[in-house]
Amino acid sequence: MPDIKFYLPSDLCVEDADMGRQVAAKWGFVTSDIEPEGLALTIFERQVQLKDYQEPKQQGIVADFLSGSSQYRQQHGGGKKEPIAKAVGVKGDASLHVVDATPGLGRDAFVLAAVGCQVTMIERSAVVAAILEDGLRRLQLEEPTLASRFTLLHGNSIEVMQSWNSAQVDSVYLDPMFPHKKKSALVKKEMRVFQQLLGADSDADALLAPALNLAQKRVVVKRPNAADALAQKPPSMAIESKKHRFDVYLCNK
């Protein structure tokens, strides 16, 4: 995993510079005013972002729960009929506690929170956790009720799930990194940067056992349609969408 610094250009406005220093101090990042040659965290217009300075024309990667696509999906998406909502077991008005052990930029967690789930995101990368926390901060300013449904934990998901001793977890959601073949430039950029940052997701199979021990009702694993089951363990059932399937493991506890 590369050594990530927090880049604070000398021409930053005072508000961004102060916020950047606070974020860097909280998460233990070294700050620098020298432009990086590769990946670095930075801040622009009050948004913490991860940027690849070898490709300076590309926008930085942020966790944006207020983006047009996120808001549109919340207002006009399938709601509780969305495949992911069906997979984790959303029914009626009951509020489920879902642990997202591989949150990435929080897009799937957003969908679950939008249909009423309490979502705990566990992120082991301090870089990604800092980005997620900033996204939740901005969401709190605009949609406090929705933001209140999120909890962010920083740690190794396998270890956190094994030592879990707090509130009941209804479902655990897993979306391990998998080589994507989509043509979207945005997705390609994000996946390339994440793979450069995090390396190979070599312990993905090891997520399943602690997830099954933790979840009271079910574990859901998002997979590309052609991919094998996680840890080669056949699911109880699968819910398919156009590009992915959701392998569902019923726990019956």
UniProtKB/TrEMBL annotation:
It comes from the Bacteria. It catalyses: guanosine(1516) in 16S rRNA + S-adenosyl-L-methionine = N(2)-methylguanosine(1516) in 16S rRNA + S-adenosyl-L-homocysteine + H(+). The keyword 4Fe-4S does not apply. Pfam families: SAM_MT. It is found in: Cytoplasm. Signal peptide: none annotated. GO terms for cellular component: cytoplasm. Keywords: Cytoplasm, Methyltransferase, rRNA processing, S-adenosyl-L-methionine, Transferase. Transmembrane segments: none annotated. Its EC number is 2.1.1.242. S-adenosyl-L-methionine binds at R107, D108, E123, R124, D175. One of its GO terms (molecular function) is rRNA (guanine-N2-)-methyltransferase activity. Specifically methylates the guanosine in position 1516 of 16S rRNA. PANTHER family: RIBOSOMAL RNA SMALL SUBUNIT METHYLTRANSFERASE J (PTHR36112:SF1). Belongs to the methyltransferase superfamily. RsmJ family. This is Ribosomal RNA small subunit methyltransferase J. The gene is rsmJ.
